[in-house]
Amino acid sequence: MKEEKNITFAFQISKVKNTVALIKSHLYRLLIFLLLIGAVVVSSCSTTHKHHSKKKHKKKIIEHVAEEEPKDTTPAPYKYRNAILTHSDSFQIKKVYKVALILPFELDSFYPNKTSIPVSNIPKAIFPAIDFYEGCMLAIDSLKNTELNFELNVIDFNSRKTDFNSLAMKNKLSEMDVLIGTLNSTDARLVADFAKANRINFVSPIASSFVPEFNPYYLALSPNPSSQQIKLLKVIEEKYGNDVNTLVVRQNSAAEENLASTSISNVMKKFAGSHPVELILSTRTAVDSILPELDTTKRNLIFLASNDVVFTNVVLKKLSALSIRYPITVLGLPSWINHDNLKNAVSKNLEVLFTNSYLINRSTADYQKFHRSFTNRYHIRPSELAIRGYSTLLFCGTMLLQHGAKFNYFIHEPTSLLYGKLQLQAVIGKERKHSFIQYYSNQDLSVMKLTSTGVQNYLSK
Questions:
Q1: Structural domain that includes position 286
Q2: Residue 47 pLDDT more than 60?
Q3: For the whole model, what pTM was predicted?
Q4: Under 8 Å between Cβ of 188 and 208
Q5: Do 244 and 298 have their domain in common?
Q6: Which of 162, 168, 189, 410 could anchor a disulfide with 173, C-beta 3.0 to 4.6 Å?
Q7: b or e along 113-141 (b: 16 or more beta carbons within 10 Å of the residue's beta carbon)?
């Protein structure tokens, strides 16, 4: 009988051992190298003949001592190439891989001590991390039948409560082969910077507004909001051109302000040639202020930057009434796919579009198998985060098994996940006529249309 492979769990959740169990029951490499190595060869050759005796050139050195040292004009990304290419163990297959799962459990905030856990209610704020974690546990069951051996270290981290550098040192994260997780943009930036400094792949499963300038170790499984907005605007441009009246509608909240200002408004400005009018509605009854900003002679392109279901419903109903006279297209958010009741606010004249990289075909055998396993173990239906957790760890495990820890250099073919296709590609940046890998991002993105009968797949790819 084949010996079952060893998968070890080193749970590193601060101050609480085994608490989660208590809470709920690899030609592509060559192409990349050519991209990275080009100028390195030239640089190496140019420095080969510079090793002369100090005595022979002593006078020359004295003569030039007062001269300013030449500034290093090497573009920032190229300063890292030699380190990457000489990383001797980059492509070695290991017997055991170390994987860190970093999630915002915030156990210290909820449970003052171990004895309080069994008798305390589960705080709602902990559920996102728990759901993702539970999905990962199901992925481990699937990986037990492979040749992969790994240690899973579960780290409780939220930047509002904990200093990441201290946590990384305490949990020896520099020894990890892969970092997975974090569920917000602030935490993602901190982990991504650490991953880059230590040349460790960081797989970010959730759409994040954080976009690195140069980090070939950052793998975004969900496109960032800016990329999604560009996708939508390309669809609009093909259909209506770019002579449109653009507006941003949101509530007066920090989350919606961040969403609108950091990713949406700037993209719409480039598209329309002018900054869009931004309407900040203090109350849900303030929707009448949208009317004066509409244009009967142009397509009114309105980005509704809100995840508030009640507020979104109110605005969509108002725009539905106005769409009889004004041509309106509403651009929404990926999360709207989870709110079926929004269809009741949409009229036949109102066009509502949004993107999504999360689209489940629940009739597939793989999904049905996962669903049975999940419900049998946890006695609840799997949430989106549980499905993402399962898919993320299963993807990372498969990549480790096939290519080793630096699997980012081999990602080029689509991978099927429970919630759609994963088409990770290198996002190429340019600086002074040089190209470099900025980061890796999922390019598979669907455009959805919200109608009075529900959500339809408006456009794929």
A1: 226-356
A2: no
A3: 0.74
A4: yes
A5: yes
A6: 168
A7: eeeebeeeeeeeebebbbbbbbbbbbbbe
